[in-house]
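call fold(seq) -> tokens
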Amino acid sequence: MTAAFNPGVDTLHALPEVFLCTMAIIVLILSFAVPDRRGWMEGLSVAAVVGTGALLLWQLGEPVSAFSGMYLVDNFALFFKAVFLISTLFVILMSINYLQLERVPVGEFYAVLLFSTLGMMFIASGGNLLSLYVGLETMSISIYVLAGFLKRDRKSNEAALKYLLMGAFTSGVILYGIALLYGLTGTLDIKQTAATLVQMNLSNPALLLAMVMLTAGFGFKIAAVPFHMYVPDVYEGAMTTVTAFLAVGSEAAGVAALLRVFLGAIPQIQGDWAVLFWILSVLTMTVGNVLAMAQRNMKRMLAYSSIAHIGYVLIGFVVGTEQGISAMLLYVLIYEFMTAGAFAMVIYLRTETVKGDLIEDFAGLARVRPVAAAAMVIFLMSLTGIPPTAGFVGKFYLFGAAINSGYIWLAVVAAVNTAISLFYYMRVAMVMYMLESPGPVSVSSSRPLYAALIFAVLGTLIMGIYPGPFLDLAQASLMGLMK
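ret:
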């Protein structure tokens, strides 16, 4: 691994980020130069994502450290970068016709979306607490803008303001935790921090305070209870495509940051933070599922659903073994497809006259659009954890890892919560198949949206029927993360 700073070589290692940043700037400039050429913006944005993905394939190989250890290229970073790019591609496909209905500036939206993805990629490659924090803020500031993109909508303004205020406070908490670690170890390098802590008194109150601060900060980023209060209002107020990006992209980035810092910098006190996250996992999945049952708005229901699924994801983190962390990564990948598909179905019902974000808006869909209704059932089954969908596979490996490591009660609580989630997920299916629509059912005619739905259905089914290669990919992604 290279450690010395070499501008030319280091920039070459960071070529995917350089390319994505360049394309985002081009999209932003062209949005002013050719504001009426919508097709240019979508095409360039897709090209940016696909081109960045191709450059990631070029990075496959031995782990590399660049920019004096601040930027890492390893399997873990490549895995999460692929997850971020897939989520961005999903959002672009969903947005192509949807943005016209919402009457928002297309070029500016795609540019901010790409900048947010850029921040996520820096998080995944963060080998230094400072570089990771810069990536976190790049992502967060961009998402604050996206959340308030409907400037004349009061709910959108409220969503952006709540997210901004809570996010700014949380960023300060994370920075305080980083400052404490720096004061204790004298370094911001993640691996050097871990090496220094080996020689220190692990019961130092300042170290435990740093752990608590980082737990609270990253708990907000992944929407774990009790740091979840902003989520339902932000999900409901923001545009549906932005909500989908928050659910599948932003939370995945928070998970990547959590793993980098806790497993990379402070693994020596795993016994302390494992107990803390055990409690957070139980609270998160239980509160998320219980509150989801009372929702009539589809986006709010999916907001609480996403909170519950973060609770499941944290099971792997609590276990802390290679089996648990690989199951955690697999679940993040699975969650991306089934959740993106569910939000795509909300957009599918969005027309000039219907917002499509109420559960009642799905009434009678099976009679007029049986294929679309069947796709929604697949997503709902996967979110619940019913075979042969990918959601069942993800929960099977997570619960199995917990049982194998002795966390039997955690697995029992998760199984009970899975049963609870069956109520509100299948309620949507009941509405589609058992109720009559009060009026004609109108749906989107966007072919890119259809492509996103097909992609999500295939991913959900393939990973459910043949999960082996994807589990192997998750296990290979631990190289360089866990010692």
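The chain has a mean pLDDT of 87.
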